[in-house]
C-alpha cells in the first residue's frame, strides 16, 4: 500500500471543512469500566480482600476519544452498538449530560464492559469483556451518511468496524486508530494496523521492539505516521516521510498527583490529533499528547474529566520537559503504557 490520499498534512480532508457536519466521526468502542483499587497488581493470599469503593465508569477507547474531542471543541459524532441494559442506560445518561452527539444500534449480546485493577501508583490491569458477536458488523447503511459528512474518522479497534476502512478510503476521508497493546504480529489487528492513516499503539506488549514495529506498520500499511506510547518512558514516532528516523518524546511532569492511568492513552491520542488538525508539528503534537495524558492520570476513573482546548494550550506553555532525544533508536527499554 502506498499511504497516498486526498488529505492535507493536518489529517483532515482537503476542502471539506465547510461541507462537513463532523470534524471527527468515532465508530465503535463504548462500554463500562468497573474500577477496583488495590495496593498491588497481584492476587494476595486468602480468598477475599477489603478494597475502597468499587465504581462503574462509562469508558473504553471510542468513548474516551469521542468525549475528549468533544471537550476540545471538535464537532464530534459517535456511533456504536449498545445493549438494552443497565450499562447501556448508564452510557446514554452520560452522553446526554455531556452533550455528546451519539447514535447507536442494538447490541444483541449487551453492552461491553471491563473490570480494571488500579494500584496505588495509578497503574492498571484490565479484564476486558467485549461480548459483541464475531460476525457483528456496523452496517454501511447506518454509518455511511455520517462518513459522507466527516472530515476525519477514528475507528476503535473493535471488529464491528473492520470493514469501514474501505468505505473511508472510497470517500477520501483520513482514518486514525489505536491498537492498544498489540504484540506486533497478531493478524487480528491487521485491518487496523495497515488500514489507518494515523496509527497509535502501546509499547507494553513490544518491549524493546517499538521502533521496529512502528517501521513495519509504515512499510506494510498506509500510515502517514505511527506512534507508540510507553508510559513514563514517553512516546516514539515514525513518519512515512522519514521511516528510518524514530523520534523519542519524553513525558511531562504531572501537575496533579498520579492516581489513575485509565484513559491516559485516549487522552494522548486526541490531544495529539487535535494539535495535528490545527497544523501543529510533531514536537507540538507530542507535547500536547503528553500534557493531556498527564491530566488524565491526575483524575480518578477512566474518562471522568477531559481537558479543554484552552486548558491544553495553557498546559503546553507551562510544561517543563527533559531535553528531547531525537534520532534512530535501535533498542529501547519496555514499559507499560499508561491508559493505552
General description of the model:
This protein is of the alpha/beta class and 340 residues long. Helices cover 28% and strands 22% of the residues. The chain has helices at 61-71, 86-98, 140-148, 164-170, 190-193, 210-220, 264-277, 282-297, 309-318, and strands at 24-27, 31-37, 55-59, 76-82, 101-106, 113-118, 124-129, 153-155, 175-178, 198-202, 225-229, 235-239, 242-249, 325-327. The strands form 2 sheets. Strands 5-4-1-8-9-10-11-12-13-14 form a 10-stranded mixed beta sheet, sandwiched between helices. The chain has a 4-stranded mixed beta sheet with strand order 3-2-6-7. Strand 12 (235-239) and strand 13 form a beta hairpin. Helix 7 packs antiparallel against helix 8 and helix 8 packs across helix 9 (309-318). The longest helix has 16 residues, at 282-297.
Features:
340 residues, alpha/beta, ten-stranded mixed β-sheet, four-stranded mixed β-sheet, disordered N terminus, disordered C terminus
Spatial order of strands in the largest sheet: 5-4-1-8-9-10-11-12-13-14
> How would you classify the helix and strand content by structural class?
alpha/beta
Q: Please work out how many helical segments DSSP would assign.
A: 9
Low-confidence parts: 1-7, 322-340
N- to C-terminal separation? 27 Å
Return the string of H and E elements.
EEEHEHEEEHEHEHEHEEEHHHE
Give the percentage of residues in beta strands: 15-25%
Principal-axes geometry comes out as globular
Give me the oligomer status: single chain
Taking Cα atoms only, what radius of gyration do you get, to the nearest Å? 19 Å
Count every beta strand, where a strand is a DSSP E run of 2 or more residues.
14
The residue fraction in helices comes out at 25-40%
Mean pLDDT: 89
Q: Main beta sheet: strand number and arrangement?
A: 10 strands, mixed
Amino acid at each position: 500500500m502506498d499511504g497516498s490520499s486526498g488529505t492535507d498534512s493536518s489529517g483532515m480532508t482537503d476542502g471539506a471543512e465547510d461541507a462537513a457536519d463532523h470534524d471527527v466521526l468515532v465508530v465503535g468502542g463504548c462500554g463500562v469500566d468497573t474500577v477496583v483499587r488495590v495496593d498491588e497488581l497481584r492476587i494476595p493470599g486468602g480468598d477475599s480482600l477489603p478494597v475502597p469503593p468499587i465504581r462503574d465508569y462509562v469508558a473504553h477507547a471510542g468513548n474516551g476519544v469521542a468525549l475528549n474531542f468533544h471537550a476540545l471543541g471538535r464537532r464530534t459524532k459517535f456511533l456504536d452498538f449498545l445493549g438494552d441494559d443497565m450499562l447501556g442506560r448508564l452510557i446514554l445518561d452520560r452522553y446526554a449530560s455531556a452533550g455528546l452527539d451519539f447514535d447507536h444500534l442494538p447490541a444483541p449480546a449487551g453492552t461491553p464492559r471491563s473490570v480494571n485493577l488500579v494500584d496505588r501508583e495509578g497503574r492498571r490491569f484490565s479484564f476486558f469483556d467485549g461480548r459483541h458477536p464475531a460476525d457483528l458488523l456496523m452496517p454501511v447503511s447506518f454509518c455511511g451518511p455520517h462518513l459522507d459528512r466527516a472530515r476525519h474518522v477514528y475507528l476503535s479497534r473493535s471488529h464491528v468496524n473492520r470493514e469501514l476502512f474501505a468505505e473511508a478510503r472510497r470517500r477520501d476521508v483520513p482514518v486514525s486508530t489505536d491498537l492498544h497493546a498489540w504484540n506486533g504480529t497478531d493478524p487480528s489487528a491487521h485491518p487496523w494496523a495497515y488500514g489507518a492513516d494515523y496509527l497509535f499503539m502501546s509499547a507494553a506488549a513490544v518491549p524493546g521492539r517499538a521502533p521496529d514495529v512502528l517501521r513495519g506498520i509504515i512499510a506494510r500499511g498506509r500510515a502517514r505516521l505511527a506512534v507508540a506510547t510507553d508510559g513514563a518512558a514517553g512516546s516514539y514516532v515514525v513518519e512515512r516521510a522519514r521511516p528510518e528516523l524514530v523520534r523519542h518524546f519524553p513525558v511531562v511532569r504531572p501537575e496533579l498527583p498520579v492516581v489513575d492511568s485509565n484513559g491516559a492513552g485516549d487522552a494522548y491520542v486526541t490531544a495529539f490529533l487535535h494539535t495535528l488538525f490545527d497544523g501543529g508539528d510533531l514536537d507540538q503534537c507530542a507535547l500536547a499528547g503528553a500534557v493531556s495524558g498527564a491530566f488524565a492520570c491526575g483524575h480518578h476513573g477512566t474518562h471522568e474529566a477531559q481537558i479543554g482546548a484552552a486548558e491544553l494550550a495553557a498546559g503546553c506553555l507551562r510544561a517543563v520537559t527533559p531535553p528531547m532525544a531525537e534520532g534512530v533508536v535501535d533498542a529501547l527499554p519496555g514499559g507499560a503504557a499508561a491508559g493505552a
